[in-house]
Design goal:
Layout: E1 2-5, H1 10-21, E2 27-30, H2 41-44, E3 54-56, E4 61-63, H3 65-75, H4 86-102, H5 109-117, H6 123-147, H7 162-176, H8 185-194, H9 198-201
Parallel strand pairs: 1-2
Antiparallel strand pairs: 1-3, 3-4
Helix pairs in contact: 1-3, 1-7, 4-6, 4-7, 7-8
């Protein structure tokens, strides 16, 4: 399999973590967003939106990280990243969606570039924008985790789930935008625990070949 990725992309980061957790070896193909390689016709032939990641298998080409993650879970079910109980699965998916749908899109590169180029926002304003939406989402997630009887060392129980796969890249992004993580001690503790595992540590942006 081939993973089209960019080291700093939060969605690519998710896929790297999940692939590591599933013990799957893939070839990493860097798509440099800094040089707008994602907007070139060659890459748009792979992903019409010009987004990363994309995962190419011998038979298929998969796009959109939530769809790819669900495909990985269904195709390579062990180790499982979702609980067996349907309500518990919904709980884990809800935490993942809180990050993937309500935090990450608002501090995605194309949104920030629009703020900078079209609305003439300063870097201070861009950082304030990112902090606002990260804080709003993390406040809610911290509350969910605090009230959850199923929380362990991870977002759910004592083994990684999709919720952790989504959370850790978002914490990495928060730190890049200088958001003080001390405000969310549970989230901070889960992130620290995750990063003790090679699957999370080796997926970090700074350790990628294109960093």
């Amino acid at each position: 399999m081939q993973l089209y990725t960019f080291f700093r992309s939060g969605t690519s980061h998710r896929l790297r973590i999940a692939l590591n957790l599933k013990n799957l070896k893939v070839e990493h193909i860097a798509v440099d967003l800094r040089t707008e390689a994602h907007l070139k016709l060659e890459y748009k032939a792979i992903h019409p939106q010009g987004f990363v990641p994309a995962l190419k298998t011998p038979e298929h080409l998969l796009i959109q990280s939530p769809a790819i993650l669900e495909w990985l879970e269904e195709t390579y079910p062990n180790p499982a990243l979702l609980p067996k109980n349907t309500f518990e699965r919904a709980h884990v998916r809800a935490m993942a969606a809180l990050v993937g749908c309500d935090i990450h899109p608002l501090n995605n590169r194309r949104v920030l570039e629009h703020l900078r180029k079209s609305l003439a926002a300063s870097e201070e304003q861009v950082n304030d924008w990112c902090e606002k939406w990260i804080a709003s989402g993390f406040d809610a997630l911290e509350s969910i985790l605090k009230d959850s009887s199923n929380r362990g060392q991870f977002c759910f129980g004592n083994s990684p789930t999709l919720a952790d796969v989504y959370l850790v890249p978002q914490v990495e992004s928060a730190r890049r935008f200088k958001v003080d993580m001390d405000r969310w001690p549970i989230i901070k503790s889960i992130d620290e625990h995750c990063l003790k595992l090679d699957a999370f540590h080796l997926a970090a942006p700074a350790l990628q070949a294109d960093a």
